[in-house]
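Below is a filled-in request sheet from our internal design queue. Each sheet records the structural input a requester submitted and the sequence that came back. We keep these sheets so that new team members can see what a complete request looks like end to end.

REQUESTER: design group, bay 2
PRIORITY: normal
MODE: inverse folding
CHAIN LENGTH: 116
BACKBONE (tokenized):
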């Protein structure tokens, strides 16, 4: 994400998304930017949200440009993961002095137990 990492606070999120999109595509990844995702409940459509970047149909990248990440940002990403059935998400914040990131998962990660 070389291009996006060169940005400083105050850059519009749409610019962050476009640069991130370009860098990921250079790596040969399939990227859907601003992907609308329909939310269903009990067989009915109850809403639509927009994922910033859907990468290879297996990772949701949620981009922020805030001074601090809030718990609400993490909850938002987990909700996207649950709605899509995608297991892995990455929350990136380009608005702080340093890049902030958090990995989030649809299901809690369980520790592996090795038996001898």
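RETURNED SEQUENCE:
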């Amino acid at each position: 994400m070389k291009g996006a990492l060169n940005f400083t606070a105050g850059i519009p999120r749409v610019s962050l998304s476009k640069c991130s999109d370009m860098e990921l595509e250079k790596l040969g990844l399939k990227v859907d930017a601003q992907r609308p995702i329909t939310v269903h409940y009990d067989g009915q459509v109850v809403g639509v949200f927009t994922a910033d970047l859907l990468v290879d149909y297996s990772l949701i990248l949620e981009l922020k440009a805030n001074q601090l990440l809030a718990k609400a940002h993490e909850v938002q990403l987990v909700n996207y993961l649950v709605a899509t059935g995608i297991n892995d998400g990455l929350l990136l914040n380009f608005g702080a002095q340093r890049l902030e990131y958090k990995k989030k998962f649809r299901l809690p990660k369980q520790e592996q137990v090795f038996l001898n």
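SHEET NOTES:
- The longest strand covers residues 44-55.
- The beta strands are 31-41, 44-55, 59-64, 88-93, 100-105.
FILED BY: M.R.
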